[in-house]
Structures are given as C-alpha cells and as structure tokens.
Amino acid sequence: MLFSFSADDYTTEVWSGSHDGIPAKFTDRFDSCARDPGAGAMTVVVSHRERGSLLRLQVHGAPLEHTWRPLALLFVPETGILFAGAGTTAVAIDVNKGRRIWTDGKSDLIWCWLRAGDVMVLVDELELTAYDLHASKLWRTYIEPPHDVRVVGDELHVSADRLGAIRNYHGSFKARKGP
C-alpha cells in the first residue's frame, strides 16, 4: 500500500499496480492518459467500517508513477462520492450506490482536487471546475499557469497569469459562486 486516509467511517487506500484480488462490492477502472494506456496501474479501494470494501478502482496508464502529480483524490463522506483524477481523466463515483456518476476527459493534466466547504474544485493545468457534494457541476473557467489556488474557508484565493478574461489575477471569490 502506498498510502491511506480516513474520513468518518470510510477508509481510502491507494496501491501501486493492479490488485484484482482485492474484493469489493463495485469495481471500476479508467485509463488516465490515452497516449500510453498500458504503462502502469494504481488501485484505489474505498471501505466502510461496517459494510466492508465498497469500491475497487483501477487507474491504468501513464503518467501514474513517473510524474509529480500521479493521482488526485477527494472523498466526500457526507455523500459517499469519490472524486478521482489522473493524467487527463477525472471521474466521480458514488461508492454507496456502486455507480460512476460521470467521466470528464481533460485536454491538460489534472493537478489536484480541493474542497472549499460544500464545493469540490478540480484544478488542472488550464482549467478550474467546481462541483457540489453530489458531483453536479457548478461552474468552469479557464486559468493560465503559472497559477496558485488555495482554499480559505469557503473561498478560493487565486494567483494566475489569467483567470477567465482577467490578466494577472490576484484575488479571491466564493467557491460556490465562481469567479
């Protein structure tokens, strides 16, 4: 196991490689990068304290183990939704219902997930996209690197060469409303 984290009654584990032998009520997979879909794998397992392993998610393809941003995860215990992203693919999975909610293919590399109150924000190289607790999209905007996005309470504090149509943006806004 590479690492694990817990939130309420849930534990999320991340393993290097494909682990088909780990049992789970729901299994899913995605290719992180269409350019080299056979280059490696990581396995994410989400378990509940009383209900056992709910999800085994296999993430296949480069740039998993050979990049500075291999896998981005955010788990929302209130709704049981796992937001995951690697390479150029992001997914949202309801681990309690055992179903993928959506898949979003990105044109640029995914950097991280952030949580600002009841808003989840996907940060990739050229875009910010916000979702609610149930994985419904709230807004999306262009961002030009270099950029820095930080959460302070329910706000996003952003420094970027460009945010939307604004050049040299240095400011903050409510995460739910967007810029």
Walk me through this protein's architecture:
The protein has 179 residues and is mainly β. It has a domain at 3-105. Helix content is 0%, strand content 62%. It has no helices and 15 strands. The chain has a 6-stranded antiparallel beta sheet with strand order 10-11-12-13-14-15, with no helix packed on it. A 5-stranded mixed beta sheet has the order 1-2-4-5-3, with no helix packed on it. Strands 6-7-8-9 form a 4-stranded antiparallel beta sheet, with no helix packed on it. The N and C termini lie far apart (39 Å). 31% of the residues are buried. The model has no long low-confidence stretch (mean pLDDT 91).
Summary keywords:
179 residues; mainly beta; 6-stranded antiparallel β-sheet; 5-stranded mixed β-sheet; globular
Give me the secondary-structure topology:
Elements: E1 3-7, E2 10-16, E3 26-31, E4 41-48, E5 52-60, E6 72-76, E7 81-86, E8 89-94, E9 99-105, E10 110-116, E11 119-124, E12 127-131, E13 137-152, E14 155-163, E15 166-174
Parallel strand pairs: 3-5
Antiparallel strand pairs: 1-2, 2-4, 4-5, 6-7, 7-8, 8-9, 10-11, 11-12, 12-13, 13-14, 14-15
Give the end-to-end Cα distance, rounded to a whole number of Å: 39 Å
Q: How would you classify the helix and strand content by structural class?
A: mainly beta
Biggest sheet, strands in spatial order? 10-11-12-13-14-15
Q: Rg, please?
A: 16 Å
Strand content: over 45%
Helix content: under 10%
Outline the low-pLDDT stretches: none
Shape: globular
**Integer average pLDDT:** 91
What's the total number of strands?
A: 15
Query: What does the main sheet amount to?
Result: 6 strands, antiparallel
Query: Counting H and I runs of at least 4 residues, what is the number of helices?
Result: 0
Query: SSE order in H/E notation?
Result: EEEEEEEEEEEEEEE
